[in-house]
Design brief:
The protein has helices at residues 9-13, 29-36, 49-52, 64-77, 96-108, 124-132, 148-151, 161-176, 189-198, 219-222, 240-257, and strands at residues 21-25, 42-45, 82-86, 114-116, 137-142, 181-185, 203-206, 214-217. With 267 residues, it is of the alpha/beta class. It has 2 domains: 9-236, TIM Barrel; 239-267, no CATH class. It has an 8-stranded parallel β-barrel, surrounded by 5 helices. Helix 2 packs across helix 4. The protein binds 3-methyl-2-oxobutanoic acid. 3-methyl-2-oxobutanoic acid (KIV) binds next to loops.
Length: 267
């Protein structure tokens, strides 16, 4: 029996209006194996790794080498899940040749099946260049975290008629540039519904309501690893932080008491 085949970009594109797409972020091989064992469609090595792995307060310090490294780790743990790597800040904005070279590294050195980058009309030429070279591109509109300083914080985007019209124009621009699907982050539900109805590729929402064709969450957020992070859009499917602390403190107590290792765990 051959290896399981990962879901492809054309297969994801064909899911428009069909079975909902499920996407989660991941940064290492151990979690990649767990994710690959369940019914997940897409894994994203997000530049959110700057916040949940590296401890920064934004995604801006993440480098291309960081994402290549984590993508390679995740790729080793996956067999059947479509793998997307995020393009970090300033790896696609400077010029389109650099954008293509950097996207190529994520695919060739990282093992990604596709790349994701932020922005609408202003990112369309870079998207076109990467797609023309044969690399599928996932778009990202709405609250694009690499523009956090321009937005003045992590705030809901697309509020008001002018902002909504601009977001729709951005969505059309990246569809025309060749994106196979797009993330919509932190936008009002009616706008997510409008974009999803008007564009021919799947939308994957985070803080963008159930009107999207799919959903994405950051792995550490959905597992509840950060007690202090409670945004409205987030559903925590577990509260692992408490369970991790409990396990570590039992281990620590048993070592101090001399009850670990016992005979059952000794040679
Ligand atoms: O970096 C990331 O994890 C993302 C998702 C939240 C979509 O861009």
């Amino acid at each position: 029996m051959g290896a399981a085949k990962a879901l492809t970009a054309p297969e994801i594109m064909a899911r428009k209006g069909g079975a909902r797409l499920v996407m989660v972020t991941c940064y290492d091989a151990t979690f990649a194996r767990l994710i690959d064992a369940v019914d997940m469609d897409i894994v994203l090595v997000g530049d959110s790794l700057g916040m949940v792995v590296q401890g920064h307060d934004s995604t801006l310090p993440v480098t291309l080498d960081d994402v290549v490294y984590h993508t390679r780790c995740v790729a080793r743990g996956l067999a059947r899940t479509h793998l997307v790597a995020d393009m970090p800040f300033l790896t696609y904005q400077v010029n389109d040749d650099e954008a293509l070279r950097n996207a190529g590294r994520l695919v060739v050195d990282g093992g990604a099946h596709a790349v994701k980058l932020e922005g609408g009309e202003r990112s369309a030429p870079a998207i076109r260049r990467i797609v023309d070279a044969g690399i599928p591109v996932m778009g990202h509109l709405g609250l694009t975290p690499q523009s956090v300083h321009q937005f003045g914080g992590f705030k809901v985007q697309g509020r008001g008629e002018a902002a909504a019209e601009q977001l729709l124009a951005d969505a059309r621009a990246i569809v025309d540039a060749g994106c196979y699907c797009m993330v919509l982050e932190s936008i009002p539900a009616p706008l997510a519904a409008r974009v999803t109805a008007e564009i021919p590729i799947p939308t994957i929402g985070i803080g963008a309501s159930a009107h999207c064709d799919g959903q994405v969450l950051v792995l550490h957020d959905l597992l509840g690893l950060d007690d202090g992070f409670e945004p409205k859009f987030l559903k925590k499917y577990d509260r692992l932080s408490g369970r991790v602390r409990d396990a570590l403190s039992v281990y620590s107590r048993e070592v101090r008491e001399g009850t670990f290792p016992d005979d059952a765990h000794s040679f």
